Amino acid sequence: MHALISIVVFIVVISLVIWGRIHRFYAGLLGVVALLILGVLTPEDIIRYADFNVACLLIGMGIIAYYMEKSGIAAWIAIKFVKKVGRDPFKSLYILSVVGSLISALLDNVSTTILLAPIAINIARSMGVSIVPFVVGVALGANLVGAALMIGDPPSMMVASALDLSFTDFIVFKGKPSIFFIIMVAVPVASATLLFTARSYIDKKNSNNNLVVPDEKQYLKDKVLIAEVISVFTLVVILLSIRSTYNIPLWFPPLLGALLITIMRIRRNNVLEPLRVSVDWLTIGFIVEMTILTGALYKTGVIDTLASYIHLYSRNNIVIASSIIIWASVLISAFIDNIPYFATMIPLVVKLSEISGMNIYTLMWALLLGGSLGGNCTYIGAAANAVAVGIVEKNERKVTFVEFVKLGVPHTVTAVLIGQILHYILYILLP
Question: Which residues does the UniProt record annotate as the domain Citrate transporter-like (predicted)?
């Protein structure tokens, strides 16, 4: 009974989000309260399933991004970018998406989105076009490469832990190009889909190519703030990059950076202003709510049941099994957080390999490919996408669920198809 209730509540919340008449935060809150009242979740469950790691990361990075924007660095980079790339919005959009992908190979997806968003906004505005595809494009690019390295996304770390993989195994595995190269090949092609899906946002008749590009140096006035921001940002990037090696919690680097920059600015700025201006509390709340709703599906066995069907219909055929794992993971990860999904699927994939004799690494790469890339279909499946939508809504206008899907699905399907072909060639076709 609890499983049915958790499914119905989840569907109702998703439906309300798609409907768009009430803010997604309140839709998620309604779902959490309903599960609590109906006895599906206890207060202890809510605390256990709520992903406060991501919440703290968003708060910390929001404060850092505020001071980065205030320092003028974002505007300086944007103007240098425009002067270098030219006034073609499509070319700029494509490069931004690819850059977001490259940075997120080392930095987590949410941080990449928060830090590149001000640059994307400045670039779009300098050309007189909508910021929607630029900010969303950065998030899509960031999510694409999060799984490429062991330090990129939690699912990658979970797979590495389960199979005792090293950092280099994600680059070259047993003499073959590994998941890093599979995903990196997909990056430029997937990013190219934005050139078609974003056309309605970047009508050249509405863009202003006659805008005078200002001198970027005028934005770099506060040299002290610039030095402080660069120092703090560098420290945060280093800590985030090595955190898996030294067991540093995800929340620690961004909160430490936010605390340091706040202390440095305490006599010069209103230290509460970043919490009001740059921290999107409703988006943070929505992301935490979705992890709780996903936790309910996990607790009641719904995710276990879905995973068992993959086992049932694979028929001990490595090609069928890999395809089912990839596309089922894409579909499921579009609507639920992929961390509990991976927590369920990793043991199942291991068991499937033991029973059938299918190669465990081939199956696990398939899981990582589908489960990590599927979140790009919607802004529900990936925290970075929800953050991007929140940033757009703060700076321009509301972004509907369907509107995001029109940008995200082509990007996702293209990346997954390329990844699946390479996965088949490298880990199934070749001995």
Answer: 16-370
The tens-digit pLDDT sequence of the chain (431 residues) is 899 999 999 889 888 887 878 888 899 999 999 999 999 999 999 999 887 777 887 788 788 878 887 888 767 776 777 677 767 788 888 888 888 787 776 666 777 788 788 888 888 887 888 899 999 998 998 888 777 776 566 677 778 777 877 777 888 888 888 888 888 888 888 889 988 888 888 765 455 555 455 566 776 778 899 899 899 988 987 887 676 677 788 788 889 999 999 999 888 777 788 888 778 788 788 878 888 888 898 889 887 777 777 777 777 788 998 999 999 888 888 887 666 677 667 877 887 787 778 889 999 999 988 887 777 888 887 778 888 999 999 888 888 888 999 999 999 999 999 999 999 999 998 86
203 and 132 Cβ atoms separated by less than 8 Å: no
**What six digits make up the tokens of 299?**
């607790």
Q: Which helix (H) or strand (E) holds 314?
A: none
In the chain, what are the domain boundaries?
A: 5-35+37-429
The C-alpha angle with vertex 353 and arms to 352 and 355, in degrees rounded to 5, equals 65
Whether pTM exceeds 0.85: no
